[in-house]
Specification:
mainly alpha
Length: about 90
């Protein structure tokens, strides 16, 4: 049986991984923004965002997570990535 400290350490490791993956995502979005700029495309692609939110909904059901919780998280991430793409 795990102790609280052991479980907290595991949570901390997951948090580190989440931040590292967010950094990777932001870098990819920056690159996408550069390509969109070169191609004279709009930063916002509502069709793509709808596809992503549909995917998130399916994943929430699969992993028994609150869709509203996940939606709020990804709305913040996408808003931030839009700003990165506009630079």
């Amino acid at each position: 049986m795990n102790t609280i400290d052991e479980l907290r350490k595991q949570v901390e490791q997951i948090d580190v991984a989440i931040i590292e993956k967010l950094a990777e995502r932001v870098e990819l979005c920056r690159q996408i923004g550069q390509l969109k700029s070169e191609m004279k495309m709009n930063v916002v692609d509502y069709s793509r965002e709808k596809q992503l939110f549909n995917l998130y909904q399916e994943l929430c059901e699969k992993h028994q997570l609150s869709p509203e919780f996940v939606k709020q998280i990804f709305q913040m991430i996408i808003t931030y990535c839009r700003k990165v793409q506009e630079l």
